[in-house]
Amino acid sequence: TNPDPQEKVWLDWVELDYGLDLTADEDALAFLIKPQAEGANVRLADFSSRPIVMDITNPASLVLFLGDQQVHQDGSDWLFTPQDLTVARRYLAVTDGKLRTPGSPTLYDKLDFTTLRHQNHQADYIVITADTLLPAARDLATIHAREVRAGLQRDTLVTTVDEIYEEFSGGVANPFAIRAFLRWAYENRPAPADSVLVVLFGDGDYDYRNLSGLSRMLVPTIQVDGSSEISSRTVDDAFVYLDSIPVSSPLPDMGIGRITVLTLEEATAAVEAVRTYMVNPEPGPWRQRVLLAADDPQRPNDRETSFIIESDGYARMLPPYLQLEKIYLTEYAAVRDPATNTVVKPDATADLISSVNQGVTLINYVGHGSATQWAQEQLLVMDRDQVLLHPGKRMAVWFAGTCTWGRFDQLQTSSMSEVLTTGGDSVAIAVISAVRAVYASANFRFIKDLFAETFPGREPSPLRIGQILQRVKMGSLSDEKFHLFGDPALLIAFPRNSLTLNTITPDTLKVLGTASYSGTTAGGAVTAGECLVTVLDAPRRVRRTYQTKSGSIDTIAYTLPGAPIFRGAVTVAADTFQGRFIIPKDISYSYSDSAAIIAYAWSDQQGSLLEQIGYRNDLIIRGTEDIQDNTGPLITIYQDSRPVVSGDVLTEEAQVEVELKDPLGINLTGEVGHAVRVWVDDESAAQVMDPLFLYKCDSYTTGGFPYQFDPDLSGRHEFSVEAWDGANNKAITTLTLHLTLDEELDVSDLFNFPNPFSDDTEFVYTLSVPADVTITIYTLNGVKVKILEDFTGQAGFQRLWWGGRDEFGDQIANGAYLYHFRAATLDDQAVTRWGRLARLR
To answer: Is the pTM of this model over 0.85?
Structure first.
């Protein structure tokens, strides 16, 4: 029925009915008998003696068949006569020798059941882990007990599943013992007990008894069996259903999260990520950024506009001072992947990866998905993209309104929610996602409620993320599927204290005109430090078209955030700050909406990050200043504060700083054809660098961005930078650079010019790494004439001038000479060369 001949149809499953000989395997056989209209005998083969047959249809009420009337011999086989064939029944046949008997009991004398049941129980942060992870679990508790700032500290308790089993299930590995322990803690802790947070510190799966032999479970799960994929699920919330009054829709009585680590190494890395986020955070613009991603209306179903409509609704719930980015798949071109013959949108993936690596506080996706992928168009794919995500300390909280992205309880496999939150290079500090399939309407309702609790009254919640999730849960089947992967005691890293933007002058701004602003942090904690100021164009209302499966054209309308006009820092001193910016030509010229300015101030005082944020959206832009300027920006490239020029050598993983300077500022709006771009050799592979550009502190005309070369590049390459000023004047700079893959000393392009020379000459050479250079001039008889030295130690293309005089300052005679070139590094590498030169006057 699909009109597109390029689309593939995939077969989900096939059901086959066939006869099967009931043959025992090592004197054991399990089998099913479907309903029969008449009585029947069942032939059982390959048993060494009379089998015992058990009806196991109801495991809680086994029925044994032992007599000759039910089981009798027929030659080498045995015939079994079932008693009731009106319904399908399951049976197990085994010989007497296969039945197990209890082993010898072990007496535990004088067990102490007060290790966990102590009377002075005050803990509001409980970590449940395995013995192998205990050192990291204790370190995690230490963070929340002593290292976080005052007001966030908690009373902690760390225990293991084995300790819980000993006290609450008689040593039996029963997951419900964990709930019994938490119920005791709930009932015996001073109020309010609902503020307690629980960490399940260790991975889990559905096979808590390891019947498969493949389980790597450290902290068990509670599985709820259902009749379908929709109703079956794992439910960590079930550990904290603690109220003694049973209800049909239970609510969690504690906040709970799981950190799905398997090894002590993974656990240690996860704890260090929490320490970085809560104790040693990195300040900067990432702490005020939110990214919303949404699936398109086309694939796999038709006219699914609700993903984008819902995402736009979430945007309206955000604090207005947060900087919003949207990755809606309708904004990106579709490309057919020849390898898989599927439609993908690689530019959307590139933008998502770039945003994650720059840093963002919160990411939300709503759309189709699986345990390892977002969207049929492969917006995010675990195996392909996880190695490309490197946010460093700028780890985001991720919400995912999609199916099974958190399916952590499978054997020998991991979901993407687990991969992002564990390992040595954590990408996400926490993820909230579903462990099973969830209907779209339930996804929308849950994510909407999650945003409402995260931003009550359009302000960041003071609650921890585990408490936020606890409040969202309403007891429905779908709610139980959403799990927190991460520490429930995390406080999402939004700035929460306000500052004031006092003045914006002039009242009406003009294109290419200079605007001034001032503000104060009075009443807040930031008395001195820096303030990042971002000026944004008015939001844009857009209408996009798309083709339905029937071939008709449909439309969808939504809002895109305003483009950046300015992004730079100013100094905060004595509670005040001020600065200027220039309005570029490439603005939306909206007469219905105003531009906005956001100011984010921070300082680090005695190891504690202090933050304030303020916002105004009343910037009116009308008209254009009459300015004549036809010159593009000045582009300069630096490495370690040294200008980079053509011919320089850069080592593996070299990073340079690109500086752009123009009296009319730099165009950062990202308009088509006017972006700041860089490329190596191939302009068609250019990267847009506008999101990374930042004006220098207290400047509105000079700024820059870092650029990291691909570590796999080597040899000579053309490195190009293109930029536009506020009046849309373009400039391009291209440098020829030599990229080397190692730190070994090498010398190339060594010669002197002119040669022969009359008055003076210049030695030129290229060093692969910084080195000290000595050039010694000799006569052909070996008499030393002159020593030239360059101890500046710079890599790349170098020059060393010689005026043709000897060590005594006298002019050397005409004739041929030899020179000995020697370069040496601080780690005792050395390279020598010999050459000829001649003096001719």
So the answer is: no
